[in-house]
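check these tokens.
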Amino acid sequence: MINKLLAKLVKLCHELNQQVKKLSKTRYLQRSKTLNFLLSMTVAVIVTSIGITTDWATTETPTITYKASSISNTISSANLRVKNNTKTPTLNYKTSWIGNTIGSGNLRIQNNIEAMYVAPDGTVYTNSHWDEAAMEAGIYKDGKVIAALGDTHGWSRGGGKAVTANSKYVYIAMTQGSRGDTKEDYPPEGTTWYSVRRYDLSGKPAPFPNGRGWDKSMLITSTKSEVTGLATVGSELYVSDFAANQIRVYDTDTMKELRSFTVANPGAITLDPQKNLWIIQSKSGGKPAKILHYSQTGKQLPQQIADIVEPTAIAINHQGKLLIAENGPRQQMLTYEIKDRPVQVSSFGSKSGIYAGVAGEVRDLKLYGLTGVGTDASGNIYINSNGFNKSGTDLRKFSPSGKLMWRSLGLIFVDNADADPKTDGVDLFTKQEHYLMDFSKPAGKQWTYKAYTLNPFKYPQDPRLHTSPDGTFVRRIQGKPFLFLTDMYNSFLQIYRFNPDTDGKVAIPAGMFVGTNGADKPFFTENWPPHQPEQGEWIWRDRNGNGKFEKNEYDRSKDYPHLGGWWVDSKGDVWKALRTEDGIRHYPLQGIDPKGNPIYSYGSMEKQTTPKIFNDLRRIEYFPETDSMFLSGFTVDRPAFGDDAGVAGSEIARFDNWSKGNRTPKWRIVIPYDSTGKREVSTAAISVAGDYVFAVTVKTAEVYVYNAKTGAQVQQLKPGPEVGSESGWIDIPYGIRAFRRSNGEHLVFVEENWKGKVIMYRLAG
């Protein structure tokens, strides 16, 4: 009976569609929302009367049954008629996450701790320039986040790189930008206040007489450069004013300036038991960094420490000894006896840090990118590592004997994961991290931080140190692992190889594609990379295997400057989509050179014409096993409203027998896209894996799942209770990556930089 009713329904839909077409002769009626609404409502009433139900899976909760109220938007390639897909089964799925110790809630591990102060009772106060979820400054205790300092985000505000506290207040460095014409207290247009903001110990702003800002809790110290150091002793607050080469001293209660004295390039500050100051003097030009000694009144004392390569943080321990974060090649915390002439008496952490032993392998005592050190009254040691180029927070507490007591990780920011196909998804990679998965464990507990793949000391020209990649492809080419990275603007594709014998877990720079700079100037306008072509686009290959960009290692060309997307297929071929009529570029793999680098060239590049249905191609994914091409972009039928370069388009189409020249789509599906100019609805990214095509929306971060064979919509995934049923916006063109495991399970990774993690959906096979 139901089958007969469904057949009648399909026939009725077809007849209604034909009537709509007859009416839709004008440009206005072709886009009429009224007609579409009436058609949908008519069909919905019929479907509801039949009583067809659809089971929609929820995340680790009982299945809920809904009445079907609409029909899928799958489009036939022949005449764009509406298909009925209500019989497609739905999928069970669970939500999990990777990269952050805490997966939900407002209090989770912040993005990048750039300064840290440890109180005698073990409370850790932190500060950073930016945290997407407004936790620039946090309070940690016993491995938990207990509070965030409020009002550090939005309204042109940001955090900073200094923090301290006493028994009554917390003081942080922060910035306050202008807000235009407002009655409240903000800087004039074009001016930034570099300030110290005062809070009570619970994290609430603590105003004071003559305080500035809307709540009168800010002390403006400069309009030229940020505060680089903070410390308190007794009733005095010491502030490093870097631009003025001054240490300024304020009363901790009234916040009135008491005095100041000159110190060139002052940075972090700590005070010893004699209440004298130890100040990091930052390196300048050819002058190396030093640690200087001053009295409270500003008299320079004779002691100094000059044998540190890159001191980034200092503190006094419970025994009155000086602790220094050495962020040079040693990657250790160094301890100095300072009663007379400073003498190093010990070091903490493995020498060479994360690069000791198996380079890149994560171990308890292997540090990397130190930004904070300190101890509590019991002698417990606290160290924060940030990695390099803001890789993420790695905050650890050790016992006095050096045993790891707890560790808090916030490793993800504007990043996504992909799976190693050889290990069936057990090994995952982001742009700098390597995770090991155990899928038998509960949500959020499945990942283990296995390795950090960036080595700035051996490979200082690594593109990850000079750019901001965020999209990851993991590929096996001729059995060997490779990492490919692109960025928020699809402007380049970076290539990395691995050699465990020489570099452990580190990803070695191997190659790079960049697009044409439309301004006829070098693609990168800074001093990196060396020897790059003066105009056009280029492919770099590390021919001698040293990880450096050298003069004879570039292949040059010039092409259309506006890129839609990159793809690396399972054979190692690179594909590029340009937003033009002949916008597909295919770079067949030419082999692996003796140093282990994949070979690509403009001489072997193939130009392929974009299928006529597209007028603005955005994403491309080709699968040689089935000779299937999946393309997304804006089409002639559904063009772009304005020019939002970051979205995936209005349709996805599948083409079979692509290499044989077929350009007729097997199916076309309409994906959420902006048709109003308000950008409330649009698709950020797509990914094809196994049985499904996945698409994720920008603002709602909902994942639409389609059958890869038919184009029928199967499911709509939303963040589950494991991650607080919430997600930030999708900011990157590869904000979704999917992988099919051998047991039929699909893993779907979705960028979630708002609260510093990657959301992982697990779809049962």
About this structure: Helices lie at 2-23, 27-30, 33-50, 500-503.
